[in-house]
Write a structure and sequence with these properties.
Elements (H helix, E strand, L loop, with lengths): L3 E5 L4 H12 L3 E8 L5 H15 L3 E6 L2 H5 L28 H16 L3 E3 L15 H13 L8 E3 L7 H10 L22 H12 L12
Parallel strand pairs: 1-2, 1-4, 2-3, 4-5
Helix pairs in contact: 1-6, 6-7
Length: 223
């Protein structure tokens, strides 16, 4: 019987690499994607589907979470709040979506228990992220403990974070080493046709490619 892993796959570079690493680790992958009212929801969904095709994933879940737009409080889900384009902010940026990864992990845990999966892969990055509190080792470890406490006794789920201590440049290098189709990934917070190149996510991604001495294959405005 194949061992199963649930991969939280946004369609971004980090979650895509994490999914390829799960495959390399010998797991049968079940992919989960969340439509939560983010500005680039349609483009991220396309990326997710393209990557599932690349990985030949047969079973996938596309989960709608409409309440994030109801509560607002994040530039990703509230179009009345501008996406910052002046460089990385100090502290927790306005693009932070309240407890997003906690909610994603909770829903994914329910799917993992139903599917009999023993691992959940999530592409959180602590050291080179935008300063989100739900991307840290400590948070993930506490979520893992809570999930295993709150599921059936014979359910044992490991939360695997293979990128958590990598820089963006290291992520680019590892993705290229594993032949990850980075041209199918999408990271921009603002735009769906051409990446803006100036939001936090684009800046981190472009800098990662620059430090790794590689060229980003996705289209950018003005580039």
């Amino acid at each position: 019987m194949n061992k199963k892993a649930i991969c939280i796959l946004s369609g971004g570079m980090d979650s895509t690499l994490a999914s390829y690493m799960a495959k390399k680790d010998g797991y049968e992958i079940i992919a989960v994607h969340f439509n939560y009212g983010q500005r680039t929801e349609n483009r991220e969904l396309k990326a997710f589907r393209d990557i599932c095709d690349d990985l030949k994933i047969l079973e996938k879940y596309e989960i709608d979470i409409p309440f994030f737009t109801q509560i607002g409080a994040s530039a990703l889900t509230d179009k009345n709040i501008d996406i910052p384009t002046n460089g990385i902010e100090a502290g927790v940026p306005i693009t932070y979506v309240p407890f997003r990864n906690g909610i994603f992990l909770s829903i994914t845990a329910a799917i993992a228990e139903k599917e009999g999966a023993t691992a959940m892969y999530i592409g959180v990055v602590q050291e080179d992220s935008s300063g989100y509190p739900d991307c840290t080792d400590d948070f993930i470890n506490k979520m893992k403990k809570a999930i295993n406490q709150g599921t059936k006794e014979d359910t044992h789920i490991d939360i695997v974070t293979p990128l958590v201590h990598l820089s963006k440049a290291q992520i680019v290098e590892e993705a290229i080493r594993l032949n990850v189709p980075l041209e199918h990934t999408w990271s921009c917070y603002k735009e769906e046709e051409f990446a803006c190149g100036v939001c936090d996510s684009c800046r981190l991604r472009l800098n990662g490619f620059k430090v790794a001495n590689q060229i980003d294959p996705i289209p950018y405005k003005g580039l």
